[in-house]
UniProtKB/TrEMBL annotation:
This is Phosphate ABC transporter ATP-binding protein. InterPro entries: AAA+_ATPase, ABC_transporter-like_ATP-bd, ABC_transporter-like_CS, P-loop_NTPase, PstB-like. Keywords: ATP-binding, Nucleotide-binding, Transport. It comes from Sporosarcina quadrami. Residues 16-267 form the ABC transporter domain. GO terms for molecular function: ATP binding. Pfam families: ABC_tran. NCBIfam families: 3a0107s01c2. The keyword rRNA processing does not apply.
Length: 272
């Protein structure tokens, strides 16, 4: 990936590090978001630490996906959205004009609930991002594709059919392909919105293993309804309710010794 890193640097895609930036890669301060008059995020104060897995949990409609999408500025595309407050990525406010969205998204990948490969071959899905960043050399692209598929624990299953359609893969394989597609641009963060909720237990296990194996290189924020999954894979957990953060702490504390009775009730399945 060094070549890609160099190329991204050459093309000035790198985000300038703010002097005040230390460990949190993302911080939100006083973040509020409205869909029309509906107040979906209320005064969110949350740090997402670098090279950790942060789980975002809470009942349906509490604002988890909205929050996640705010982190790569996807929510602004919805009609009638108003945002106030700050969301900083490495100390730079992404809601201001200082960071173009394409620069942010070259650093922050997103994986959705339903796998969404492009209608292209397995190879072309993974090579797409590097090509957009100007890499044309065939050998270099092949190297990036192989490395990304290996990191996504998919290489052995697809190495003999790289030029077959991505749609020929199973749902679980397609989701790992989407993660490989993110990894191919060497992101700093991957945002995952219920990435295993449409998958069987074996595929879910593979994705969880994959998350564990990449977390030393990539920061991950994951929305999940699966409490066991949050407990298994995350370092920190944020519990959302009605658009507010009720509690954010180390995952072991949230599950074993939460400060708020609402958190206790939720993680123990008494509501939601
Ligand atoms: N595009 C939109 N336009 C208007 N309201 C929206 C839009 N997207 C979400 N909402 C509303 O904002 C609130 C938060 O929705 P969001 O999808 O963020 O919740 P969630 O916690 O991710 O829910 P789920 O677990 O069901 O996916 C809900 O009341 C939802 O109806």
């Amino acid at each position: 990936m060094t070549v890609l890193k160099e190329r991204i640097k050459e093309n000035s895609f790198s985000v300038v590090r703010n002097e005040n930036w230390t460990k949190p890669i993302y911080e939100t301060n006083g973040l509020n978001l409205w869909y029309g008059t509906s107040h979906a995020l209320k005064n969110i104060e949350l740090s997402i630490n670098e090279r950790e897995v942060t789980a975002i949990i809470g009942p349906s409609g509490c604002g988890k996906s909205t929050f996640l999408k705010t982190l790569n500025r996807m929510v602004e595309t919805a009609a009638d959205v108003t945002i106030s407050g700050n969301v900083t990525f490495k100390g730079n406010n992404i809601l201001g004009k200082s960071m173009p969205v394409e620069i942010l998204r070259s650093k922050v990948g997103m994986v959705f609930q339903k796998p969404n490969p492009f209608p292209k071959s397995i190879f072309e899905n993974v090579a797409y991002g590097p090509k957009v960043h100007g890499i044309r050399n065939k050998a270099m692209l092949e190297m990036i594709v192989e490395e990304s598929l290996k990191k996504a624990a998919l290489w052995d299953e697809v190495k003999d059919r790289l030029h077959k359609s991505a749609y020929s893969l199973s749902g679980g394989q397609q989701q790992r392909l989407c993660i490989a597609r993110c990894l191919a641009i060497d992101p700093e963060v991957i945002l995952m919105d219920e990435p295993t909720s449409a998958l069987d237990p074996v595929s879910t296990h593979k994705i969880e293993e994959l998350i564990r194996s990449i977390k030393n290189d990539v920061t991950i924020a994951i929305v999940t309804h699966n409490m066991q999954q949050a407990a298994r894979i995350s370092d920190r957990t944020a519990f959302f309710l009605n658009g507010e953060i009720i509690e954010h702490n180390q995952t072991s504390t949230i599950f074993n010794n939460p400060a708020d009775p609402l958190t206790d009730d939720y993680v123990n399945g008494r509501f939601g």
